[in-house]
Amino acid sequence: MEGEDKLQSEGQDKTPENALTKNCVGLIEERKRSISELLEGPTKYPRRRAIIACEVCRARKSKCDGGHPKCRLCIDLNAECVYRERGFKLEARDKLILDRLDSLEALFRSSSERLEKNLSSVLQLQSNQISEEPQSPLLPSASVSLSSVSTPLLPVTAQTSPSYSRQLAPSPIPSSNSAHSKSDRSSKSEYSFSIPEDHSTTWLHLIQRPQVSQLLSAPTKLLHSPLHLEIERLPLNFDSNVLLDLSQVQPLVISYFQNVNPFIALISPYSWESYYRTAMANGFQSGSESLVVLSALALGEAAQQVSITLIPSGAPIPGKELFSRAWLLVGRSLLSSSLIDLQALLLCSVYFFFLIRPLDSWNLISIVCSKVRAICSADLDLSADNRELLKRIYWNALIFESYILAELDLPHSGIECIEEQIGLPSGFLEPPVMPLTVPGTDEIWYFLADIALRKLLNRVHAMLYSKASRKMPISSFHPIVEELEFQLNQWYENLPSPIKFQFGKDKPTNRFSTMLRLRYYVCQSIIWRVYVEAALENNSLLKDERISRGALKCIEASLFRVENIDQQRDGHILYIWQGSLALVAQIILLMAISVSPVLSQLLPYPTAKITHIIRYSVKTMVLHGTFAPSIKIAANALLDAEQKWSERIGILLRT
Question: pTM for this one?
Answer without folding.
Answer: 0.74
